[in-house]
Design a protein that fits this description.
The complex is a heterodimer of chains A (404) and B (430). By secondary structure, chain A is mostly helical. Chain A has two domains: 255 residues, 7-stranded beta/alpha barrel (Alpha-Beta Barrel), CATH 3.20.110.20; 99 residues. Chain A has 17 helices and seven strands. In chain A, strands 3-4-6 form a three-stranded parallel beta sheet, sandwiched between helices. Chain A has a two-stranded parallel sheet with strand order 1-2. In chain A, α6 links the parallel β3 and β4. The relative contact order of chain A is 0.12. Chain B is α/β, with parallel strands linked by helices. Chain B folds into two domains: 240 residues, Rossmann fold; 165 residues, Rossmann fold (3-Layer(aba) Sandwich). In chain B, α13 links the parallel β11 and β12. At the A-B interface, α13 and α17 of A face α14 and α15 of B.
Amino acid sequence: MRKYRIFDVGQNSSYFNDESGTNFDNKAIINKVANKCYLPANAVLLENIKTHPDFKVSFSISGTALEQFEKTAPEVIDSFKALVDTGNVEILSETYYHSLSSIYNKEEFNRQVLLHRKKIRELFGVTPTIFRNTELIYSNEIAKMAEEMGYRGILAEGADHILGWRSPAFVYKPTGTNNIKLLLKHYRLSDDIAFRFSQRSWTGWPLTAPKFANWVSSHNGAGETINLFMDYETFGEHQWEDTGIFDFLKHLPDEILRNPDNNFATPSEVIDRYEVKSDLDVPNYISWADTERDLSAWLSNDLQKEAIKAVYALGEDIVHIDDLELLEDWRKLQTSDHFYYMCTKFWNDGDVHKYFSPYESPYEAFIAYMNVIQDMRLRLEAAKKKQEHNVQLHRVKPLRFSDF
Amino acid sequence: MVSSRSPSVLMFGWEFPPFNSGGLGVACEGLSKALSASGVDLTFVLPLKVPISASWCKFVFASEASEFVDETQITKLFSGYENINISASEAKKYGLPGSISGSLMQRVQAYALKAGSIAKQNKHSIIHAHDWLTYLAGIAAKKVSGQPLVVHVHATEFDRSGSDNVNKEIFNIELEGFRQADKIVTVSGWTKKKVVEKYGIPPEKVKVVYNGIDFKENSSSIEDNLKALKRDGNKIVLFVGRITLQKGPDYFVAMAEKVLAHEPKTYFVVSGSGDMEEKMIRSVAKKGLSSRFIFCGFLRGQELDRVYKAADIFVMPSVSEPFGLVPLEAMISDVPVLVSKESGVSEIISSALKSHFWDIDDMADKVVSVLRHQKLQGYLSKNGKEEVKAIHWKKAADSLISVYNSLDNAFSMFLLPSSPAFEGAKVSHL
């Protein structure tokens, strides 16, 4: 979202377009990450599948990201299609807008998951059966919601405070559900690649494929599945090409499969193959973010709470108004990143929040967001008046409640 | 270099509270007090004899004229911001010796003439001179004692007069001070950049030591007239500072016009005086905003505290601000602040809003947002106040001691290995 100012309110409603070439320019960013990460990484994976027909991988891609690629870098979509067509790649479900709706608005959550499902079917011709929520946000309640929507499996962070002495290397059952299984991210091994790969101060540096394969193999006998889950931009964007990350990715299948006890599997294959080890009770929300692994990255300060309250308050009326553009903008405003940028937890330390934020401070993020909300309110009022007017004129004009 | 002499500092200042016209005196008071509290033996030199009540260090006056009666006259006389000519008859009237009459430049030179004998009479291992007004005195002292010289840059001529109006004479004194100094201290990275770029000084010669502030709870009651305005639902946007080019008063007015277009129930309160005051008032009138501006003249102490209490946001649109103590005062009074990025203070506060001084739209956007969103105002107010607690003179003094120590390692006795200054000494700012 661009630096939307008070002067823009009521004057223009283009919140997301910016052609400045800066960190607000979505097109420029998409082009950059497509070339640095998505295209080269997809090429390596496709090659891996060709040389190792047993190599498996799965993706969770938001509808927003897919849309941006379609618009700016369609070759990225093609490269994902090629991967899915091999049959070795599973696509997971998530909310279309990478939102926090699972916490705030269950109906909206359902709609966004269905929208995403539809988009995946359209682009890739497959229907996902495994769900992963935004930022791995998870609780018993969310597992139940996914179960109700027909999913067989769900992903969550293998956070220490929920596992205790238990291992993330088994399949679990979410407390209060019957037909859905839980896969846990092995955060140590995942973060070895995602965060520590190029960290010279780390004892594991330099991380090579044989070394990593050894670590994985050392779990044999004490686990059934190692779920590696990471931001795809680890490959080429967070870890640049010159760190050797693509070579690592290229040689990983080779090294893992060198041990005959190892194999690769997609989440649904894991779920089919292994029995539930036990119930896992997660009454409070967890996520994969920051050291706290809770919701504090998006919802810890008053600014974040105020902003999210404001956007979901709009929803009560917006879903009953026949204005698809307004509805779409509202949904884009739900993307969790907006609230992430308002986080003040680590701002002083120049932490990851700062790295990822296009704004100079959390306050600027809040100000731009609330200006947009103000404009949305004006649009909503205008749309309501128009609709009331039409209803009065025609009395019988049917209202549309959703767009699918 | 091991020194057998006991570490001590001879410090040359120009003004000292309550006889000060600006931040220079406040900084000298804060630094000398904190240095003394850390055990540093300090002699503070002033050009004229004034009744100083500070008890933490020894004071020496370059001119032993009889004490003054008229405080405002003294304050004006000391001002490094105004070039006041004092006629011989005036000097006589105030009981001043003939040597201190004349232009500011003449008084600066008169001060330097006395510095040598002061250096001879007062034992010291470091000479420390504050701003160009005292550089010549510092250089003269160094010539006599041969001890290392630290010059402390609270502002450069470029900050005071803007790039087009630089006084060549002052510039040359500054340049000479920077060259003769063994170490240069600036009050911010912003000022360091000026010293490096405009004066061609190698960056490794310059250390940044941020100013501090005495954290004193503002428990004043809100000013009555402003209270009445607020009761009627009006918001208060506050400007405090000299009304001079450097402080960006014209940008404040332009911003006010934009804010009023969106938040008409806003008053803009201006505290301060200066050579652009009339121009500012005229421009407010020309834009038809007179009914929305309150000019209250130069306020200090409790009067100012009561105005802070009324403010919803404080704005400092300075074109060039070497440090900028005033926003910190506002933050102590629970007021959210918007400061220009062209200020030193913006480098050390994070619970604050920042804009370029010329970006009127950005400033107006931020001010309106604070006026509209209580959560934002509350957040900045609460966290800003907390933040200021960590910006104290002790921290500045510790950094200074590590600068002294780099010139005379007898000062290491004041540097505890665990002290933040020890850490600070290792981290180079900017």
